[in-house]
Amino acid sequence: MSKRRTKETSLTLGECISQVQDILRKRFCLQKLNGRPFGMESQHKHLLELLKRTAIQGESNSILIVGPRGAGKTMLLNDVLNALLEVKQVRENVLEVHLNGLLQTDDKIALKEITRQLQLENVVGDKVFGSFAENLAFLLEALKKGNRSSSRPVIFILDEFDLFAHHKNQTLLYNLFDISQSAQTPVAVIGLTCRLDVLQLLEKRVKSRFSHRQIHLLNSFNFQQYLKIFEEQLTLPEDFPDRRFSQEWNQNCQSLSKDQTVKDVLQKQFNSSKDLRSLHILLAYLF
Questions:
Q1: Nearest Cα residue to 157 out of 258, 54, 280
Q2: What distance in Å separates the CA atoms of residue 134 and residue 31, rounded to the nearest whole number?
Q3: pLDDT below 70 — which residues of the chain?
Q4: For 260, what's the count of Cα atoms within 13 Å in the CB-facing half-sphere?
Q5: Residues 58-74: pLDDT tens digits?
Q6: Helices marked H in 92-131 — which ranges?
Q7: CA-based nearest residue to 188, from 201, 199, 177
Q8: C-alpha separations of 182 from 9, 22, 135, 176 in Å
Q9: What does the alpha-carbon distance between residue 133 and residue 39 come to, in Å, rounded to a whole number?
Q10: What pLDDT is recorded for position 3?
Q11: CA 274 → CA 155, 165, 194, 210, distances in Å?
Q12: Which candidate among 167, 256, 271, 274 keeps its CA 20 to 30 Å from the CA of 60?
């Protein structure tokens, strides 16, 4: 087997291919983007600024990310969270709680999951609370370090947000939005949903406590932009160990995106579904 040696490394061709497969499989299967989500620059900036105000300045906020399945809602949020955690002050202080409407099917289960993710099982112990609000307030109070300015910010992420609206009395949503409107522990409540009519599902008391901030994601790119996304998803990062191999690989990816047979296949995929998830599924079969 031939060897490719550079100043940076002495990887064999087989080792390079193995690393390429590892990088691309993570990118396609775990929805890890190569760079920023395409065409979402303004939404990325808006969401990042909002979360920075919560994580650094202690300002509570709530927002909904709305778009069809595969539009990139989760990828956008993950990219923003990664950018947020690059700030040392944020990385050492902020807490994340991830809930999913398909898993946390009622408020009792959701509260247990919040307790687990905040690692407060020992603090709660055998305490008995009179209401959901009292229990949640106790959890957030346990995170404080003395005053509000030193309280640990909490980012609540509610995937399949519309399903939480079907919980009895919408107690979880009411209390989370109520906290985000009050001067308690700084929290950010982020809901992800594919339903455009999601606000119509909320009770009046819940809706009145929501900030009504929304980010709408739509797959509005054309086929030429779709080809560019295809090329970017196959491109190796700049920090790939073997620079010569990565340059050759990236040049071949550019040639591949111009091949008429490949363009015909992608055109059919584009006409069938423009979402990035289906493109990742298609590419995953190749690696």
A1: 54
A2: 37
A3: 1-10, 31-38, 125-126, 128, 130, 143-150, 183, 287
A4: 0
A5: 889 999 999 988 788 88
A6: 107-117, 121-124
A7: 177
A8: 55, 46, 17, 10
A9: 40
A10: 44
A11: 30, 29, 15, 31
A12: 167
Give the residue carrying structure tokens 């047979």: 261
Looking from the CA of 249 toward its CB, the CA atoms found within 13 Å total 21
pLDDT of residue 1: 41
> What are residue 157's DSSP bridge partners?
98, 190
In three state form, how does the secondary structure of 20-70 look? HHHHHHHHHHCCCCCCCCCCCHHHHHHHHHHHHHHHCCCCCEEEEEECCCC
Under 8 Å between Cβ of 28 and 287: yes
> Whole-angstrom Cα distance, residue 10 to residue 242?
8
- 3 — phi, psi (to 5°)? -115, 140
Return the pLDDT at 36: 64
**Which among 156, 142, 148 is positioned nearest to 185, based on CA atoms?**
148
Can you state the angle between helices 107-117 and 171-181, rounded to 10 degrees? Answer: 50
Alpha carbons 213 and 190: distance in angstroms, whole number: 10
CA–CA gap between residue 261 and residue 246 (Å, rounded): 24
Q: What is the pTM of this model?
A: 0.79
**What does the block give as tokens for 238?**
């700049």
> What is d(CA 23, CA 38) in angstroms, rounded to the nearest whole number?
19
Query: What gap in Å lies between CA 18 and CA 4, rounded to an integer?
Result: 14
So what's the pLDDT on residue 2? Answer: 44
| 3 state SS for 163-202 | HHCCCHHHHHHHHHHHHHHCCCCCEEEEEEECCCCHHHHC
Q: How many residues does the chain have?
A: 287
